[in-house]
Amino acid sequence: MSEEMIETEIADASPVLDSETVDSKYLEDLKKDNIKWRTRAKENRDAAKKFEEVESRLKETESKAELAMKQASEHRALADRRLIDAEIKSVATELGLKKLEYAKLADLNQVKLTDSGDVQGVREMLLNLKAQDPDLFKLPTTSNTSFSPQEIKPVVQSNNLSDVKTMSDFNRAKEEWLQSLS
Fold first, then answer.
1. Whole-angstrom Cα distance, residue 122 to residue 128?
2. Could you tell me if 114 and 80 lie in one domain?
3. Helix (H/G/I), strand (E/B), else coil: 54
4. 122 and 169 within one domain
5. Which residues contact 94 (CB under 8 A, 6 or more apart)?
6. What Rg, from alpha-carbon coordinates, does the chain have?
7. Contacts by residues 77-82 (CB-CB < 8 Å, ≥ 24 positions apart)
8. Model confidence pLDDT, tens digit, residues 57-113
9. Which of 162, 149, 157 is nearest to 177 (CA)?
10. Helix then strand then coil, % of the chain, to nearest 5
């Protein structure tokens, strides 16, 4: 309410008095009441301003908190994605996937991240991909059976490497070894 409205209501509510019936004590009481109500109205306006300021700061803080939560969620999703990608790379290398891009052909819906941070389902996903398209994976390597250990010629004639004392001895031994390979 504005001050003018309050004064109008007070004026309407007060009885019409003529100057003879109004004594000075009654006028003093009316002035004190007027001052009291004006002071309360001013205090209420000040409190309303403070309330609006606090409400504004609260809205600002809530918006900052919402933004921080959104950013934290985005960072968490990025960290989870990186963890899953690292696990896919590790298992893909272990299983012999020719190119890491081929892992994108697999069904990533099988991969889950547990609450403890473990990645589950990557091996199964890549094994399913391998079963569907084995050409994407390298063939398992076998050991060379045509090589026999007797064919190895020692570069240094003794079993003690202490015979190589200088860099020139090392270079000479290296040359002999290279010639023995050809």
1. 10
2. yes
3. helix
4. no
5. none
6. 45
7. 80/113
8. 999 999 999 999 999 999 999 999 899 899 989 998 888 888 888 888 888 888 888
9. 157
10. 70, 5, 25
